[in-house]
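For reproducibility, we list the full input for the EPU complex.
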Amino acid sequence: MKTNVNLQPYNSFGFKATAKHFVEINDVNDLLELIKTPEFKTEKHLILSGGNNILFTNDCFDGLVILMNTKGIEVIHEDGDDVIVRAQAGEDWPEFVKQMVAKGFYGVENLAHIPGKVGAAPVQNIGAYGMELKDSFLQCEAMDLATGKTRIFTNEACCFGYRESIFKHELKGLYIITSVDFQLTKKSDLKLEYGNIKTYLEQNDIVHPSLQQLHDAICAIRDSKLPDVKQLGSAGSFFKNPVVDKAQFDTLQQAYPTIPHYDEPDGRVKVPAGWLIEKAGWKGWRDEHVGVYEKQALVLVHYGGGRGQDIVNLSQRIQKSVEEKFGIRISPEVNFD
Ligand code: EPU
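The corresponding predicted structure, in tokenized form, follows.
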């Protein structure tokens, strides 16, 4: 265990924050040892994975940061076209997707290029291009931090929703996900419906894409819209897309006939927060340290030299102005420490 560790390399926003205690877990047995330590028992703790969805709002994290770094990817079951793959929590998510695509396993390709680690993926049920983690999630193993016992969480037990799971709510901070099992298939099953995918493939004269071509297309689409976190600090989408009731949407659509939207199964309508923020005039806005990404208004960026609080202030100003203009309250997808 280390003390006074600079967390700047461990959060994709690149904010400076010092962890009072910091420990890196390379083996699940290290976790069992850790939970017996006085630091673990007395200090508040934060489980850090890739650090791609966290905003440090203070200069010091007054507790214990646990960085998950366990490795390993293996096929644990194969039956005809069906494959079950187990990945340890510390595996890099985009690398995991690349490996599955290279093996010809379908089921996670639309989630290509999302920065982060495997263990964090179920926590917020990552999603992109018409696919969510829950679609290929079979089960995960997690450690109860009070007892050290492991528990299996089935897909149902995780209570997945749009960027939601039980690990963000009832069980927040109580369990650490140690590995995830994915139900994949060797049978071609590509999801191409999401608007940009078809357009991109058409523009590149790809009529019948292979699994690899779809993976590469998604990487290219993401690169064209989202900042590379190695170059510019961000946490991907900062807000969730709000869901409004049909009557409110109809009023909005009368005022803005071209408003993009997605119908929800329950009759409500999801509206892209990026569109609302752009229409409220924020796209490309910046001050010295932070701003709104010029190619995708849903992404808040850190140009360097700023503090987490700058992003908090900016996000509150955006929330207020979107609410004043459209009567819709947008809420953050990113976790605040
Ligand atoms: N739009 C604008 N202006 C903007 C941004 C978007 O008008 O500045 C419009 C677009 O033209 C489009 C619509 O909003 O009509 C949706 O935009 P986009 O396809 O870029 O997706 P999004 O809804 O903004 C969501 C996810 C992303 C994911 C993409 C692609 C959320 C919060 N975000 O963004 O996930 O990559 O769809 O599937 O659901 C993330 O969670 O970190 C993330 C990047």
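The chain has three domains: 2-68, 73-185, 233-336. The radius of gyration is 20 Å. Both points were considered when choosing residues for closer inspection.
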